Amino acid sequence: MADNIGNKAAKQFSENTEFANNGSFHVKGAVHYDWGMKDRLSRIFNPASGNTVMLAFDHGYFMGPVSGLERLDLLIPKLANHADCLMGTRGAIRSCVPPTFNKSIALRASSGSSVLQDDLSHESMVVDIEDAIKMNASAIAIQTFIGADGQKETIEELNRAVNLGSKFSIPVMGVVAVGKEMERTTQFFLLATRMLAEFGVQMVKTYYCDDFGKVAAACPVPLVVAGGKKISEKDALSLAYHSIQGGAAGVDMGRNIFQSEDPEAMIQAVAKVVHEGYSDQEAYEFFLQLTKDNTQ
Ligand code: R5P
């Protein structure tokens, strides 16, 4: 107990100053969440920019060791410092990401299929919420296959995750799946992102599309945009730029970072777009400069 003899009397009450912590919150749709949820969201979405650079390296959970992710133990330490959030499986994170990095984690918590199958749309929540809590996950990511064979089960699993997330203040990231046979139209993304938000997720991972601004406007929680298959660095930075301009709150980018000719330069260039308002051209010039510096 603190010593209470001879203490200075309290007098700085600032009665005429409004309570300073009554205002808004930097994450879309989150103003009425509780403290734990907001704390976790603030670890993912940078309070200064409101946005996130999420580094996705969960591909192995259904694809095995894709190009660039052969040695997570060597790759992730080079990139982690430039990301706000690491998206991976519990196996990859426990074995290859030192906890001393202290980065927010978006834990891939659904699975159920592999590239050896034709139909990848059957996934369920496979990580117990207790294990997500043990890993200090800032969010769990659950994939949902709207319009595909596995629609009903994946919607049920997503809702189960939201129920558990609400119980323990763990945000859920709803992942919009796009499959071989599935549409990638504006109409599809309007439907899928909105459905996931209505189910109660705290953020949605989706893809860029035409009229992306409408998709972002109609979704009451933040959208993070996946990079998709490897394209040129210039095009990937344009994708990031147009996503942010269209109202995304960040990217969840994998292959266009770890398969880049210079992954460290690429993630830093993406961060310039996401957090510092760089245009795609400025970010590309920044990337070229860093690449040049790294080879000298
Ligand atoms: C798929 O395996 C995951 O959902 C990825 O995390 C997501 O697609 C982002 O990675 P990429 O930018 O490589 O598409």
TrEMBL record:
Keyword terms, alphabetized: Lyase
Entries under Gene3D superfamilies matching the protein: Aldolase class I (3.20.20.70)
Top class in the EC scheme: lyase
Signal peptide limits: none
Keyword flag Lyase: yes
GO terms, molecular function: fructose-bisphosphate aldolase activity
EC number from the UniProt entry: 4.1.2.-
Listed InterPro entries: Aldolase_TIM, DeoC/FbaB/LacD_aldolase, DeoC/FbaB_aldolase, FbaB-like
Pfam family, one: DeoC
Name of the protein described by the UniProt record: Putative autoinducer-2 (AI-2) aldolase
Upper taxonomic lineage: Bacteria, Bacillati, Bacillota, Bacilli, Bacillales
